[in-house]
Amino acid sequence: MPAENLERALSMTREAAERGAKVICLPELFLSRYFCQEENAANFNLAEPIPGPSTEAFTSLARELDITILVSLFERRAAGLYHNTVAVIDGRVGLLGIYRKMHIPDDPKYYEKFYFTPGDLGFKAFNTQHGTLGTLICWDQWFPEAARLTAMLGAEIIFYPTAIGWHPEEEDTHGKEQHNAWELSMRAHAVANGCFIVAVNRTGFESTPGTEKEGIHFWGQSFVAAPDGSVMYRAPADKEAIHVVSVNLNDIEELRRGWPFFRDRRIDAYGGLTQRYLMGT
Prior knowledge:
The protein is an alpha+beta fold. The chain is 26% helix and 25% strand.
């Protein structure tokens, strides 16, 4: 399946470029099913090095089309050492760098701590031919500190390749609130940091191995948020989509003049953020 998914992703990336896209982001861990629903050591065989086969394929395509591609991969760094990683590939330059997921969840059907070592490269922004781009990954999206530090590095657009959805048994009772919280959190990052946000999510149902009805119903609904928090585009919930959204990076300057959050930050008063919690011991 990874080989088939790779070819499909390359084809869809080409299609997006033909529609005019200059920066293209793939969903989290797109090469396979979301394998973190279970703890199974055999799944480590899905990992690959960076550079490796997938980055080589996308590097060739990026050079041909002169586009920037964000590729989410299960990285094999060394024997027994693995990361959830985004490779940033920039046109004729090739592999510009990588970001390793910093926040690793451990929840029912999201057993990522079994597979991934937390990132050790810090937060990143990449100067590409199409703007300064930051990338965070899925669980990172809930942490305002991650978005802030990425924006402070100069990111004009922050991309979030993602694999998130509902447990079927919770969808009717909590589904709307869960989805709203997810989108609202990232739209708030756009406002607080005066930058564009792009969330790229999976869609469809993936059953937990060995079951038919248990699993994750990925809610799709990838979206682009402007620096004022407005949603410029929202993808369907129930099917794949390729969509090109035009953004004007000059909007960042104008909005930050009106909402000068970076100017008014009290950098002398934020030392407590380096602590786990401040109340009690």
